[in-house]
Structures are given as structure tokens and as C-alpha cells.
Amino acid sequence: MVLFFSLLALQLLLVKVLSPSPWGLLAFSCWGLLLGAAVSVVYFYNKKRKREVCDVMGVNLGLKGLQHLLGSLPTWLSYTEREKVLWFNYVLEKVWPFYDKGVCKLVKTQTEAVFEQQLRSLKVPGLKSIAFKQLTFGDAPFRVESVLVSDKQQGGLVLELDLRWCGEANITLAIELSAG
Prior knowledge:
Helix content is 55%, strand content 18%.
């Protein structure tokens, strides 16, 4: 308010000092009003545009909205709830020979113990033992296609993995029969 009155006083002082003609004063006042109206229109247009941009930036656009804004999306960009884990698949390819040996050893020890226990309890006549002669899951590791972590279940998180395995497993069972 103080600024308004000081600007008004400055204008009245300039009118007194410069003493323009009434027609000149009227012409420059009209030009000033037109210029002020134009500046205010531009100001409010920019303010409206900035508000719209801020509203857009604050909203989760989704795949269609991004495509509309950017024109086309890069091929590496995946905008889904499920995440691609290409880096994890790369690591799996490198450690698969070691992992395969460890998993095969674990499966072999656990299942052979179960085979032995079941043979003792069932007492199948003529069957002495069942064991793995050869066990490998092949050269191709399994691939993790996508991962989804969800907290919709109360009291915990749910981790969903989409796995794909196209390996050539080589599993040979050795069944030992008792003579006679």
C-alpha cells in the first residue's frame, strides 16, 4: 500500500515537473494502459502454463502419457509394475557353472537320503538302493524374466519372480537290485 502511494506521488511530481500537454498526457496514459494490459495477459498466461506443467510433473503419467509427451520411448525403458533384472541374469550366466555344481550336490544329498529312508521303511523286495549316477542341470542358467515386490499383504512383503529355464538337464538314476 505504501508502495502504491509513493508511485502515485512520483507520477504527480513528474506531471508537475514535465508539464505535458493534456493530449500528450492522454495519449501516453492510453499507451501505458495498453502496455500494462498486455504485460498482465502475458503474466497470467505464463502463470497458467507453469501451473499446468507442475500439475503434469506431479502426476504419474503411465506409459501412454510418457509416449504422448516424448513422442517415442527408448527400447530400454520399461514402465511397468514388474521390474526387468537384466543385470541379475548377467551375473547368473557368469556364476552358473559353480551354482549348478552346488545345487546338484545339494539335491543329490537330500534326495538320496530320502530314497534310502523310504527304501528302509517300505522294504521293497529286490530293490537294494536308488542313487544318482549323473546329475547336472545343463549349461544354460535359468533366467529371471521379471520381479514384482508388493506390500498389499498385511504384515509383510510379497516377492514374485517369473523364472524361465530352458536347460538341458542330464539326470541318470542308478537302481541297484539285489540278486535273486
